[in-house]
Amino acid sequence: MTTISTIENCPPPSAGVLLRTEPDRNCPLCPRLAAFRESARAREPKWYNSPVSSFGDPDGRLLIVGLAPGLQGANRTGRPFTGDYAGDLLYATLLEYGFAKGVYQARPDDGLTLVDCRISNAVRCVPPQNKPLPAEINSCRPFLAATIETMPRLRAIMALGRVAHESTLKALGVRSSAAPFAHGAVHPAGTWKLYDSYHCSRYNTNTRVLTPEMFRSVFAQVRADLG
Ligand code: SF4
After folding, report:
1. What average pLDDT does range 12-16 have in this prediction?
2. What is the distance between the alpha carbons of residues 148 and 172, in angstroms, rounded to a whole number?
């Protein structure tokens, strides 16, 4: 069941912070991730192996925030959630609810476009074992904050997993105690609403932490609210 909590006095997301939405290809801010990136470039020179840019419509009303690029997904292909299982479920659901059009073929040149929607990640570089460190999440947050701030029509943010939820709250300047993470929770925050979902990773779906039906229910709520 959807739970709704209200965040009082939500300030503007990132007044006074860096308004740069995309990091450099060789962003040095996280030494561990930069070293991991370099080792991947040496091992797989045909892969993307760089910070993954946001994908979709900057004028969209929906922003989806994931955790970080998957090693063989976005880190390989260069487009968020493209090329691994998480993308299969996410893009199928976006197509079903009218937030994408075309045919998803798990490659960045498949012609798929997002409709009224953008996808980004809390951390732009692939982390070892899909686990960014707190300092790395903090270092990458200005790019997320700038992404939010430069979407003038933004009304809905969907956080995929707790890390994305917490980093989005910090980007919005909201205390995490005011908006605890729970699958299906909706947190009104100023002119936005923050929607929580468990991450659509293969692990979560294999263990039934997240079923496709549970994932669809969050999108159904967003679609109902946005119209
Ligand atoms: S995770 Fe973000 S801040 Fe860290 S090196 Fe990559 S792009 Fe830079």
Report:
1. 44
2. 8
